[in-house]
Write a structure and sequence with these properties.
The structure is a homodimer. Chain A is built from 18 helices and 31 strands. Chain A has about 775 residues and is α+β, with helices and mostly antiparallel strands. In chain A, the strands form eight sheets. Chain A has a nine-stranded antiparallel beta sheet. In chain A, helix 9 packs across helix 10.
Chain lengths: ~775, ~775
């Protein structure tokens, strides 16, 4: 186990005894971010650290992608998020001895993240080698109101005797860099030292750095300022790649030195160094203007507002309660202030997946934001729409029409080097267009506001160019890879075909409902007719013999995986070759099961029950993306207890470090997925009709669930107990039509209660491969 | 056009006017080799040159294979043939001016390769800048009797005046190295300077070098000796990586200086430097012992014997006549003296494909050798059998049973970095086992003599582990790639399934006919029963609607390729992405058509006619492997004129540089393929029965064809004219039963003539995609 021991608490994530052997996962878990700026939860004294880094969303470097056997159209340039100057270090020396928490036996060493305050606190009490007991209390925040500001309050007390203390506060590039997962020396050459330093200046109480990435030419500036209380001397010095401010004090017993460190950041593709510096200094000034207390107050105000709109409650499972709130907190922070940049798979909490964004953000993060903080969703969709040109270019390279969005990217260009799991995974386009459509439907805004109509049109064109009709009139997508990465380059993946159908129909609807805009996009009536004809003809394979949908043509005839013999060989892809598992009945992640959720209305209840049973028995869940979808699919088939177990797994992915890779950053899709497992799963929430639909279930273990969503401006509260589901509009237009278990209710301020339905499964609760049951 | 202009002649390949702008292809075409040692056809004065290199078969270096996105079981080490010290340079200075054929206007500058003498001659007559006319006459050979010896006779005449001449004869590593097709600096680092020099010594008339490859640790030694006639001084000097012998003469008008340069080579995995040197010096001594005339006589003796067994004649097409003999000559040389090493796709005529061997050697070279020079075939099969352990290791990595042979390799280990076209192309195992089986059948020797029975057993085990029976009892191979590299990762490729069936049956037969040996190989009766049961159940897809075999399940439902729009976009793979063409009806190379040849008896005549028509219309022939198979498939379907056109294309691939890559080396599979197109195609030769079968056809353009084969020790001559096919046994056991057009004849020394059948096609001559008709 690599997860730190954390206390269960409804509003705090507290590590009562800091475990320096598990610091990697803790660095990610205690990350602070606002979507623009992110800081890993490292120690103030910098060491020990697994990956000490500060990130700015959108600041990345490129590197060559060289193939031992290349091919036409393989991306030639990779991208990687790079760490900008880190301002977290405040290295302490007491009576000549550098503080290293591994070398002292602290009486107290705790950290806690306060989900309502938006701050990370730390308290360390120890006896220094010279005999004096000291207490260090620090509080760190990344401002949710001032996107460029990070601030630290650092308070050191000499408890029972005198102490000569020196605090070396750094703003530095010389951090512990993100690990580079490449043995190509050209990659490390590009990524290890991505910056050229343009200026490094100090003033007595701080200074600034300006830098530029060597290949992408992105300018970055960071500034720092210190405010020191107590009798101390302060001086600063600028070095080659850092600014160091030294605070020295001779504390008497009971005396305190208090430092408030304010950091400001900015980046730009085109600003000159001086402008960058002025902006960073301006950010520091803005932080100073608000003052420490002002920053704290803003932080709380924004989070109060967030929780009023987004809080979730579960009774009967305190661990889950904490995880759901923690996940929402991190999700809110990851998306709060993004600007012309995506949310990566790890947000700004680590350099995992090189900081790339994937379709899972559209699939598992955006719908959450659209229902909770639509303004944050809008900014992310705006970014995705801004990559349309790159997606069109990629389609042109592939001799396809329309646009095909990148499998993994930071700036919109495809950077995946293994085409069967990226270029062939055309379903990402359906997820992207779905996110735009869902957002417009949930918020009641125009598809054009964020570019959604154009995305629908361009993706419809893509489907038309890659799909085709056979002699018998069936419309097929051949040689694609669906969400399940263990089954590659297949024909007629059911999920992809169903999603393409939706995409075509929604594009047709979008053009017919806005004929002028459709004309601007060059869409003819004939084109729309062709989309509808293709949608009508989409072929959905069915295995009559087994009475289930094959995940793709032929899937159910593949040889079965020897799950019993292979218990110790997970993840499958690390112990087996593609040539082996691409045509076996072993499923990495929800694929057909994801269709049971996103394309619910395409399955009869009988089909859903049969399909669920079939795929549950063959899904090994080697991807963190899977559990939330399996939770929803289980809930759809009326297995709330199993749904809860999957919900717990997805909710605790990071807090329990279930994948053992939380050190590389939090799993954004799991954070969002846990909320979706609760609402779309147990709550039966559907957001694709003209009115919100619910179908609540309550697992035996929980006595109550409660969540909030914002539907077309109305804030709806949904509380489910054994006594029924109680709905009320807390804010915004009322009454609101809500469909519960197929029946429409008018909901206003006065709560409406609908009786709770008993689960009515058509089959027994499905089982999983040995050892691959839901974890936690 | 990059091919040199060559005279058409039945026994010579003569370039009457050396064209130094087309020197790359000429270097390959004028290569000399004996399968152990190969020398490119470079100019004596070394420059200009495209790739000046001497190769030893089996001497290679490894380099890292680094993947931008790796995966389990991807080979981590590449291999590349490397150039050993080159002894061809004899740099000439006349009256202080270095000879550069580009800077003089020669009266005469010709080269000719004599297919009966086994020598490359050159004559150059020019006026030196100082005014004297000189004539240089050189003759080069790579001995077919002394595998380690290359010799050059260099004769320079001062025709009409005095000349002070200096000849700088080198044995040197500092050659013009093979081009490295990788932008990974670690690859060039490994391959560009592969050798560490162990010793470099001179004696007055020559010297030697010993070297070792840095990573593979292969020791190489080369020695050189000069014998000089005429009044000249000779001295030698050893440098860091070369031995240079300088011959100086003051020639009066009409005087000649004559140098005989003898080179000896050796290599070993374990010998110390001194032993290597002694062997190389020993080789030079052996060459010296024979003397220049002795070497020439041996050369002619061996080739006389070869042509007596292997000559082919065609009347009515002198170009084809020349090409067929040239091809057989180069094939004979490529395989004559191989020792514990494979024949690469380019033989030793260039560093193309990094010197790797592929399944095409088993498919298109070995059957030729088995029928013409079985002792050479045996040595190659012995090498392949020696890679069984590597093939077993690879199978174990993939969690497969038995053995899976490498797609591309020098030492038996898989080095392909793109798995869909290598690891998934399991059909190579069928080609390997077929080569063993055919050899035993043709020669009448035991399968065990070369390890064939073990190969059959281990490949049968492979098929059993990758194939499986479905619920309906059909046996399938899913997720494989057949010979057509434009259709990857498919199910039930007809060619692969038919070949797997043969492999299983032959393995079962081989075990039942040698029960003691089968027991030694751990084969049980139950295992054999399972092989037969699987063979019985092999699923062969059939498209009832179109009345043809889909090349793989679903192939005929794929979208058609827009051949008309894509006329200028060949090869397809350089203008299109895999994700586009893997599921289109565009065929790179014979796949189903290859099955029409190798699995002839699995098709009715009607099926063969329909299949041929269908696939001819969709095959773009972007691979040089294809034309010979298409020739045979056309002949099978009774289209001898079209078969001849394909035969011409395959026969002239190198002499006309049709693929524009002959500079990288000759296409061994095309050399062999042209003979197969003549014999298996026009001759209807089948080598899989207990007696040789023939079904001759004569295209309109040809008035006569004549070829020879050795069947179980009997040398059979087969001559076809309009008057019929005349058979006679020239040597070995007689009478010999030969089946012609289904009727058995007893053939002895006295010729037997069988009337010529008229072609009886069931359909019209098939057509090809626009612009992809047979070339030449």
């Amino acid at each position: 186990m690599s997860a730190p021991h954390l206390e269960v608490h409804p509003w705090l994530v507290r590590e009562p005894r800091v475990d320096l052997d598990r610091t990697g996962a803790a660095e990610a878990l205690f990350s602070l971010s606002n979507g623009y700026l992110g800081v890993r939860g490292t120690l103030d004294e910098a060491d020990p650290s697994v990956e000490r880094a500060t990130f700015l969303s959108g600041v990345f470097e490129t590197h060559p992608l060289a193939y031992p056997e290349g091919g036409y159209g393989h991306p030639e340039e990779g991208q990687a998020i790079v760490a900008v100057p880190d301002g977290t270090p405040l290295r302490l020396t007491v009576d000549g001895a550098a503080l290293d928490a591994r070398e002292v036996e602290p009486e107290v060493h705790e950290r806690r993240l306060d989900l309502r305050a938006g701050t990370l606190d730390r308290r360390l009490r120890w006896r220094s080698p010279s005999g004096t007991v000291l207490e260090l209390r620090t509080r760190r925040l990344v401002s949710l109101s001032e996107r460029s500001v990070c601030a630290v309050r650092y308070e050191l007390e000499a408890v029972d005797g005198p102490a000569h203390v020196v605090v070396r506060s750094e703003l530095t590039l010389g951090a512990c860099p993100p690990e580079i997962h490449s043995d190509d020396p050209r990659v490390s050459a590009a990524i290890e030292q991505p910056f050229e330093v343009l200026t490094a200046r100090s003033v007595p109480t701080g200074g600034h750095l300006a830098l530029r990435t060597r290949r992408t030419g992105i300018g970055v500036a960071a500034a720092v300022e210190h405010d020191v209380d107590g009798a101390a001397t302060v001086e600063s010095e600028a070095g080659e790649d850092r600014v160091v401010t030294t605070v020295t004090a001779a504390l008497a017993a009971g005396e305190i030195v208090r430092i408030t460190k304010t950091l400001g950041y900015t980046w730009s593709h085109d600003l000159p160094a001086d402008s960058l510096v002025q902006r960073a200094v301006g950010a520091v000034d803005a932080g100073g203007e608000l003052g420490w207390e002002g920053l704290l107050a803003e932080q709380r105000r924004i989070l109060d507002d967030f929780w009023a709109r987004a809080d979730v409650e579960v009774d009967g499972d305190p661990e889950l309660q904490q995880a759901l709130r923690y996940n929402l907190f991190q999700l809110c922070c990851a998306a709060a202030r993004t600007t012309r940049a995506p949310v990566g798979a790890k947000g700004l909490t680590g350099a995992g997946y090189s900081g790339h964004t994937f379709w899972d953000v559209e699939g598992f993060v955006l719908p959450v934001l659209s229902l909770l903080v639509p303004e944050a969703a809008a900014e992310l969709l705006r970014w995705r729409a801004s990559t349309l040109d790159a997606a069109r270019e990629r389609a042109a390279v592939l001799d396809w029409k329309g646009a095909t969005f990148a499998w993994r990217t930071i700036d919109g260009h495809e950077t995946s080097a293994y085409w069967p799991a990226s270029t062939a995974a055309v379903h990402v386009n359906a997820a992207v267009s779905r996110a735009f459509w869902v957002h417009a439907n949930v918020t009641g805004t125009s598809l054009d506001e964020l570019g959604g109509r154009e995305v629908l049109v361009e993706t419809a064109r893509l489907w038309m160019s890659i799909g085709h009709e056979d002699a018998e009139g069936g419309w097929h997508l051949l040689g694609v890879t669906g969400p399940d990465e263990y089954t590659g380059v297949v024909d007629d993946n059911v999920f992809t075909n169903l999603m393409a159908r939706r995409n075509l129909i929604r594009a047709a609807d979008a053009c017919e409902s806005a004929p002028q805009r459709a004309r601007e996009l060059g869409v003819t009536a004939e084109e729309v007719r062709a989309w509808r004809a293709a949608a009508d003809a989409v072929h959905i394979p069915w295995d009559d013999h087994r009475g289930v949908h094959p995940a793709n043509a032929g899937f159910t005839t593949y040889r079965e995986w020897r799950f019993a013999d292979k218990r110790d060989s997970y993840p499958v892809e690390e112990h087996n070759h593609y040539a082996k598992f691409y045509r076996r009945q072993v499923v990495k992640q929800a694929d057909l099961e994801l269709a049971l959720w996103w394309c619910r209305e395409d399955f009869t209840d009988e089909e859903a029950a049969a399909d669920l049973e079939y795929y549950e028995a063959r899904t090994v869940r080697d991807s963190s993306l899977s559990a939330s979808a399996q939770a929803v699919a289980c809930a759809v088939a009326q297995h709330p207890d199993l749904a809860l177990r999957y919900l717990r797994e997805t909710a605790l992915v990071d807090l329990r470090d279930i994948q053992e890779d939380t050190a590389e950053g939090l799993h954004m899709a799991s954070l969002g997925g846990s909320w979706l497992a609760l609402t779309a799963g147990l709550g039966g929430l559907r957001e694709i009709g003209d009115e919100l639909e619910l179908a609540p279930l309550l697992p035996a273990r929980l006595s109550r669930t409660c969540f909030r969503v914002t539907w077309r401006g109305s804030l709806l509260r949904v509380e489910t107990t054994a006594g029924g589901t109680t709905l009320s509009v807390l804010d915004g237009p009322a009454p609101l039509g809500v469909v519960v278990d197929g029946v429409r209710h008018e909901v206003g301020e006065v709560p409406v209660t609908v009786p709770l339905r008993d689960p009515a499964p058509l089959r027994a609760e499905p089982t999983q491969p040995a050892g691959r049951e839901p974890r936690v």
